[in-house]
Amino acid sequence: MSKIQNSLIRKSAIAAAALAITGICAGMLPAQSINNNMKAQLKRYVKQGTEVRFEGYLTGYSYWDNTPPGSAAIARPVLRQQAGGTGTYNDPITIAVGHAIRGGRQTLDFPPGTRFYIERLRKYAIVEDVCGDGYQPQNGPCYTGKNGRPWLDIYIGGKNSSVRETEQCMYRLTGMQPIRMNPRRGYPVTRGEISESGCQVFGPVG
């Protein structure tokens, strides 16, 4: 289970703001004033399998600040039993999403197995974990989002790196990112665990 780790993320303001989502196959979606409404729109496209491009807030979590610390444990295994992946379409990297627990029932912002393509990392990712701890994770930033955008938390690895190196990597990739949900095959990929492949950040894919 991922944790929100660095001080930049801890101090992030939680706000609701309008956001336009660009649907690659579906044209322009209307701007949403609340993150939950936007997530509801995206969930419809998950079911349809339609590729959609939107702006999301991306953070990272590592082997060292996972829950429990010093592990690659995940909450919702799909392709593997531990967090991992090299970022290809067939081997996407584990990504964590916000979740809510109400009446003893857990609901994820995006279903386990949902695929994304993170343009600036040149990595495919798959939902296999949740972001936010405690009995009411819906009160935390992963669920409420950042400035009206969905919050995604990608696993960077780091078992063979120092804590400081992984923190620097997470800081580097944190921010608003163009993201594709239900991506097609064939987008550019820089293969490898994020922390082990240089924690590279590129420009958006055209």
From TrEMBL:
Keyword presence, Signal: yes
Signal peptide (UniProt feature, chain positions): 1-26
This protein's UniProt keywords: Signal
This protein's name: Uncharacterized protein
Species in which this protein is naturally found: Phaeobacter italicus
